[in-house]
């Protein structure tokens, strides 16, 4: 099988700084148990195609599993290493293609393998490599997390996407940078194909980073769920349950098990009783699944020093990133071994405190300064806010809620330590 490094994947526009809680081993275990199956205890875990590495850095520095992962893009690997620099323990991070990484002689057998936004964006040859890696490296009883674009939800976009790629390539051949070529292609098709104006107008609102990595790689293969299962059958895994709280016709994230063991009702209740959940915080309404050793009362643990210290190091870097980019929305949470999604504006409010500013009014003013400097506007219930007075009122109200509600919860969860 051919394996050109990158293999048609966009590498000249940075990937987004997303975090995916479904790859937290504790969340996986909770969901698999809810579905009535025995989840693996996770000592060794692997993430393939980790992007900017936010999930890998956090899970590998806060949780109890030993994580490693690879991404072909050296910039991604460098950014992931910087995010968790000086964290001990921390993940092993490689900048290798799948073929290079899969050939490593020092790979262990894994209890958990995770792939987010990889399956639909690689060639059939690389999907075959992934299947073989899972077959060889996922232990019996081990879990797989997989997300992919699915049909028929993406059916209306298939031909349109091909025309977008073709027009963007013309722009690049005319000397435009990739980002400009993508924007121009959308505008051109919006004029030429008004019947697709709803789809194209929605694309205009998305970041170039999202558009480039979603639609403009060489490979883009939405698949029927049955086709995904047919390919993965060779790896010996079985689909167990969704990792999503809300169903989607266009995107699936799922947990699979190798040699799954179903639990009777009594065993399921016993296993679920070992888990502690607490109310969510920030943007997510989902309950938080705590790490072993943490309790719901004050969310304290007897042995959390490494996790708390590593979380503060990562959060300092996430807050610094939020000051220069509107992408980050999460903070590392030692209580869960993962992260909490609090939204970018909340990160700016946290950053204001980090700089020694005191009180909601000063925090809101700082957030507005950063918004103005980056040319951004806050979004409230899906609506981009316009006008200085409206934005200022929104930020003041957000800062007041942060002081009264969010900040105490973040301190309780040891996301912030002061």
Describe this protein's structure.
With 418 residues, this protein is an alpha/beta fold. It is 43% helix and 15% strand. It contains 15 helices and 13 strands. It has helices at 25-34, 54-62, 74-83, 98-102, 124-137, 158-173, 178-192, 197-204, 208-215, 225-232, 265-272, 305-322, 344-354, 360-374, 388-412; strands at residues 44-48, 66-70, 92-94, 110-115, 138-149, 237-242, 251-258, 277-278, 288-289, 330-333, 338-341, 379-380, 383-384. A seven-stranded mixed beta sheet has the order 3-2-1-4-5-7-6. Strands 8-9 form a two-stranded antiparallel ribbon. Strands 10-11 form a two-stranded antiparallel sheet. Helix 2 links the parallel strand 1 and strand 2. Helix 6 (158-173) crosses helix 7. It is globular. The protein starts with 24 loop residues before the first helix and ends in a 6-residue tail after the last helix.
Ranges where pLDDT stays below 50 over 5 or more residues in a row are: 1-5
What would the average pLDDT be, to the nearest integer?
Answer: 92
One letter per element, helices H and strands E, the order comes to HEHEHEHEHEHHHHHEEHEEHEEHHEEH
For the largest sheet, list the strands in their spatial order. 3-2-1-4-5-7-6
Gist of the model:
The chain has 418 residues and is of the alpha/beta class. The chain has helices at residues 25-34, 54-62, 74-83, 98-102, 124-137, 158-173, 178-192, 197-204, 208-215, 225-232, 265-272, 305-322, 344-354, 360-374, 388-412, and strands at 44-48, 66-70, 92-94, 110-115, 138-149, 237-242, 251-258, 277-278, 288-289, 330-333, 338-341, 379-380, 383-384.
